[in-house]
Amino acid sequence: MKLLVTGASGLYGSKLAELAVARQYQVYAFHNEHKAAYGIPVQVDISDERKVDAAFKEAKPDVVVHAATLTDVDKCELNKELAWRVNVQGTRNVVQAAKATDAFLLFISTDYVFDGEKGCYKETDQPSPISYYAYTKLKAEECVAKSAREFCVARPSVIYGANPAAGKVNFALWLLKKLRRNEAAKVFVDQWNSPTLNSSLAEMTLEVAERRLTGIYHLSGASRVSRFDFAQRLADVFGLDKSLLVPTRMRDFSFAAKRPADSSLDTSKAAQVLKSKPLKLGDALEHLKAEFSS
Predict the structure, then answer these.
(1) Which CATH code fits 2-161+196-223+263-279?
(2) Residue 152, strand partner residues
(3) Alpha carbon 38 to its chain's center
(4) 3-state DSSP call for residue 173?
(5) Which of 174, 201, 214, 191 is nearest to 284 (CA)?
């Protein structure tokens, strides 16, 4: 299988490319600022339609996983033009190029398309974004559904993993670093989600790609937890002092963009269909610890 991954230097994209290379797939790793570590690195700005078209014609992929996105929620709120150009126009460019090369398209969206009023969202629940980032991701979903020939939309939630990627440190790594230094860490008690281990997400999405599963799938962790609960469980698994965790509320911080209070996802559809099941938090954290050891 010839696999093209956009955002291949990111937390999820790099793990997907690593896994696919290990399975001896031919991987074209699209990146922008940070060079991809796995696969054939291809420097492409997805907002440049001509460069995207040219790169796709060169690669001729069977499957495209579109993970490149501007994920900084506050930056999207403050620079809406940039957010639209990357998240919507960039997706439109990728969709059209995938369609022209007759490739199956897997789009990585987000739990933030929901407003967070109820949590445990199913694939059939109506999205209602409350930030500009989430709005652009929903518009990108609509672009995929409207224009792609064969597609799947996958929604993860708070992706974390054992290694920093694209110059960023994910929530789990940030927390582990603080606790190992015996530093206090302020963690939200009033924000709930379904934390997603990047290696688990890579396994699930690669299965979706291999089986050409279509529609919408919630491919997150299988546990609904608050950020504070997640932090406590992480500290327990790694044998760190959880008394350093400081319960904090979102209202105590000033953000440019609103965050959903409970954007946790119902993963029962994925659990029924996939052989690679969404992981409960305890299992995922044990996997994370093993990845650190290896």
Answers:
(1) 3.40.50.720
(2) 106, 215
(3) 18
(4) helix
(5) 201
